[in-house]
Amino acid sequence: MSFQFPSYYSREPFFTIQPVLNTRKKQLEMWIDLVLSYCRYNKVYEIDINEYIKKDHKLFYNEKINRRLSNESTKIIFEEMIEIGNGEWLDKDKNRVMVWWRKPEEWATLIYKWVLDSGQTNQVLTLWEIQKGDDTKNQEFYDLDTNVLIKSLKVLEKQSKAQVFQGTDSNLGVKFFSI
């Protein structure tokens, strides 16, 4: 089963950033919702705007109506998305963006709940165990992008619920605390 695009994705004006402020605001909200939904469904954490535009990626190009989002319009959408806390630029030229369809704080909450529920407090876990371990196969954070996981663990560290440290052979480990 593939991602189902909303009906407004097939309307030509959707692919042109609207000049009227209220219309534009609603349009950007719709684009952000679409991008986050698409990324969540496909477990996409990072988007290279140039690659997506160049390769006519279906997220920004509707072949049926022959409409595509311009590079500039795409950056406007991501600027807005970042402003509301659902992403971060990964380069100074603003071509690559980390997409947070769940914010690091939300991932941190899910991970910490699993730690408490599974009795993993006061134990050291590797990132691999959290991302790909047998115990996490049924968790939403299974196969979570490493950068997103680290940001989420840093949130727990600031809350004094975890300590991230460098293990042997350059692997990161994390110890969770019950508070």
TrEMBL record:
InterPro entries: ESCRT-II_cplx_Vps25-sub (IPR008570), ESCRT-II_cplx_Vps25-sub_N (IPR014041), WH-like_DNA-bd_sf (IPR036388), WH_DNA-bd_sf (IPR036390)
SUPFAM superfamilies noted in UniProt: Winged helix' DNA-binding domain
Localisation per UniProt entry: Cytoplasm
UniProt-listed GO biological process terms: macroautophagy; protein transport to vacuole involved in ubiquitin-dependent protein catabolic process via the multivesicular body sorting pathway
Pfam families: ESCRT-II (PF05871)
Gene Ontology molecular-function annotations: protein homodimerization activity; structural molecule activity
Record keywords: Cytoplasm, Protein transport, Transport
Any single Gene Ontology cellular-component annotation: ESCRT II complex
Primary residence: cytoplasm
Protein family (similarity comment): Belongs to the VPS25 family.
Name by which UniProt lists this protein: Vacuolar protein-sorting-associated protein 25
Organism this protein belongs to: Cavenderia fasciculata
